[in-house]
Design goal:
This protein is an alpha/beta fold. The chain folds into 2 domains: about 200 residues, TIM Barrel; about 100 residues, Beta Barrel (Lyase, Ornithine Decarboxylase, Chain A, domain 1). The chain is about 25% helix and about 25% strand. The protein has 11 helices and 19 strands. Strands 11-14-17-16-15 form a 5-stranded antiparallel sheet, with no helix packed on it. Strands 18-10-1-19 form a 4-stranded mixed sheet. The protein is elongated, with a radius of gyration of 23 Å. The two termini are about 25 Å apart. The model has no long low-confidence stretch (mean pLDDT about 95).
């Protein structure tokens, strides 16, 4: 959807993405990099981000075949791994668009068409998709039998590596190494995401490291890495500013009552744009050099900000997220969610603007 008159926009600094990738690569001893650009690169723009970083990374990854097709149709050439489940309906698309499949179940060997490249996915403790460690010999036999397909890699996924000190992460690491004993001929092995790669330097990070949130400037867990640059800033303007009196209530359910006479700004952004309703009466936004509290329940198209005694002109810039305002960690903590959801909640109503600085 093209926005002719957007009420807000996100500014995405593409060079920050590149620098984050290079820092992750440096911290992992020069490992290959797989950039995860699923869900529109966590709403940072999969096509724009992928094209900018294509020469910096070795692989790209998406969640669905459609996401992979979009990148190919926009001219992206790098290898693309699809994490999702192959089906008879989408099997031909892997060949047509040169996409690499994930095989995570025995039935997938028969679903895919001749010549399709694939990575094996083993579940070492995530409990989502993948073969169990006990199936390793069965899977090896199936891979050998299905020479009509091309095995290009093998991977697993940590469940608890977003922060340091997880015994279960170490357990998964050991399980995967045991699995690999049956697959020594596979040319590409990967398991570590940004969290594992940076929080567990003693682990074997194999041939390649995956980064999604990390390249955008954030760690998945509570650990905040100061050496990562936040790539996205979300801004809007004050749509209306009006006087408000002590005792006046604001928004649905009247959850906020004005403490003193002052001014209220209405910002033309709401949960229809991606501001979680759970941030109601918690969020603070930046106007000028000062943080101001959001007031009342966030509505679909608007939220309100209490300015106290300060009256600002209509049209004044308001920073919702990033820069010197709250960052996505702060949003996630206040909303009781994670940074992934904060970003992927941002809807197409929000314009995207890019720079290379």
């Amino acid at each position: 959807m093209r926005n002719n008159f957007p009420n807000s926009f996100v500014h995405i600094r593409l060079e920050s993405v590149t620098r984050n990738i290079l820092k992750i690569k440096e911290k992992t001893g020069g490992k290959k990099i797989l950039a995860v650009v699923k869900c529109d690169a966590y709403r940072h723009g999969a096509v724009e981000v992928s094209k900018h970083i294509e020469e910096t990374v070795d692989w790209l990854a998406v969640a669905t075949v459609d996401e992979g097709i979009e990148l190919r149709m926009k001219g992206v050439k790098k290898p693309i791994l699809v994490f999702g489940i192959p089906t008879y309906d989408n099997a031909a698309a892997y060949i047509t668009h040169n996409l690499t499949a994930t095989i995570s179940h025995v039935t997938h060997f028969s679903v895919l068409m001749d010549g399709t490249g694939y990575h094996l996915n083993f579940d070492t403790g995530m409990g989502r998709l993948g073969f169990s460690p006990a199936q390793r010999e069965e899977v090896r036999a199936l891979a050998v039998m299905n020479q009509r397909l091309v095995c290009k890699g093998i991977y697993s996924h940590y469940a608890t590596a977003d922060d340091p000190g997880s015994d279960f992460a170490a357990t998964q690491h050991d399980r995967f190494k045991e699995i690999l004993a049956s697959f020594s001929e596979i040319p590409l092995v990967h398991m570590s995401n940004t969290g594992a790669a940076t929080n567990y330097p003693g682990f074997d990070h194999f041939d390649m490291v995956r980064t999604g949130l990390g390249m955008l400037g954030y760690n998945s867990g509570e650990t905040r890495h100061g050496w990562l640059e936040h790539a996205l800033t979300w801004k809007s303007t004050a749509g209306q500013v009006r006087a408000i009196q002590k005792g006046d209530v604001v928004s649905y359910s009247s959850t906020w009552k004005c403490p003193k006479d002052g001014f209220l700004a209405t910002i033309p952004v709401g949960y229809g744009d991606g501001v979680p309703r759970s941030l109601s009466n918690k969020l603070k936004v930046l106007i000028g050099e000062k943080l101001y509290p959001q007031a009342g329940n966030v509505t679909m198209d608007y939220f309100m900000v209490y300015l106290g005694k300060e009256k600002i002109p209509t049209g004044t810039e308001v920073t919702l997220l990033g820069d010197k305002a709250w960052n996505a960690y702060d949003w996630a903590e206040a909303a009781g969610t994670n940074v992934h959801e904060v970003f992927t909640n941002i809807t197409p109503r929000v314009d995207k603007r890019y720079s290379n600085d």
